[in-house]
Structures are given as structure tokens and as C-alpha cells.
Amino acid sequence: MVDAGTVIQHFTYFGIFCLLILGGLGFPFPEDGVLIITGVLIAHGVVKLVPAFCVIYPSLLIADFILYSIGRKYGRIIVEHKRFSKIVSPATLVRFEDRFTRWGALTVFLGRHFAGFRAPIFVISGVMRISRIKFVIADGLSAIITISLTLGLGYFGGNSLRVLKQDITRIDYILILALVILVAGWIILRYFRDRRK
User: Fold this and answer.
1) Phi and psi (nearest 5°) for 88?
2) Whether the predicted pLDDT of 1 surpasses 60
3) CA-closest candidate to residue 148, choices 106, 178, 109
């Protein structure tokens, strides 16, 4: 006999995958919102952290790489299209292109954390012909930070203040993890900046 809980769990992970792919491609499923909701589901035991991460991480990279590939294939035609100019004005596009010229893949690393500009940055990175490997590395490292922050936000939002007060050591570990992520981000930033010189 099929266990209902198992079926729900399988469809939950598949649902997360679909929402992240579709949201990454412009459908009305914001990536950050899906990740926060997933964090809440983890807090309530509906999904488990490791399987959720194993679904979320490739989902984000696949959606981002599709946008990058569209930009790489169609070039300036896509960024000069009137629909794209409604999202990113010509003046903003020039600023983004200048950032890519100066910082290269570092723009992808930093740009992932600006929800409104995330998709256009990935498209523009393809138009600017950032190498595929640099794009995947920069996006992959940055996605780890995005996932950690948004899942953490959802997870702690999903728990009551009473539970958080009872487990102060968990907060200490999260603060230490956040500090490690910030230091790692700073080191990566310096690495890319030094390579550009």
C-alpha cells in the first residue's frame, strides 16, 4: 500500500523544483518566496533539509543557465527588445554592461542577491559572452549564500519564539555560519577583483 506521506513528500520536492525553474524564467513564482516557504516547510517537518537542498540548488542553477544561454544565443537582439527595456531601461543596461566589462563574473556573483535585477543580469551576462565556466562558478557560489539566507529566514520564521529561546546554541551556530559565509564572500570578492587587475 502506498504511503500518503511518501507521495506528498515526493510531489513536494517536485513542486519546489518546478516552481523554482518557472520562477527563474519569469513566471510569477518569486525565487525568494519559494525558498522562504521551503524553509517554513523544513521547520514543520514537511520536507527534509538535505533532500530540499539537493532539489533547490540544481533548480536555481538550471534556471539561471537557461537565461544565460538565451542571452548568449540571441545577443543584443534580446536586450534591445521593448519588453526587456520595460524591465531594464537603456541607461541601466549601459551601467550593467560597464559593470560586466570591469568586473566580469563578479557581477553575476553580486547580482544574484538583487531580486529585481537577477534575471536581467543573467541574460546580460550571456550577451556579454562571460565564459560558461566562470558564469557557473560565480552563480553556483552565490546561490549557496542565497539558499542559506532565505531557507534560514523561512526556517526561523516557521518556528515559534519560544522554541528559539529554548535553543540559544542554535542561534550561536547560525551566527557563526553567517559570519563564515560573509568572510568567504569577502575572500571571493577580493579574488575576482585581484584577477581583474
Assistant:
1) -125, 115
2) no
3) 178
Average pLDDT in the chain: 78
Asked if residues 79 and 96 have their Cβ atoms less than 8 Å apart, the reply is: no
Query: Quick count: other Cβ atoms within 10 Å of Cβ 42?
Result: 21
Are the C-beta atoms of residues 135 and 108 closer than 8 Å to each other? yes
Listed by start position, the domains of the chain span 4-196
* Cell numbers at 144, concatenated: 549557496
Ramachandran angles phi, psi of 48, nearest 5°: -105, 150
- CA 145, CA 110: separation in Å to the nearest integer? 10
Residue 44: phi and psi, rounded to 5, are -95, 5
Evaluate whether 44 touches 126 at the Cβ level (below 8 Å): no
114: CB partners within 8 A, 6+ apart: 121
Supply the pTM of this predicted model: 0.70
Contact 40, 30 (CB under 8 A): no
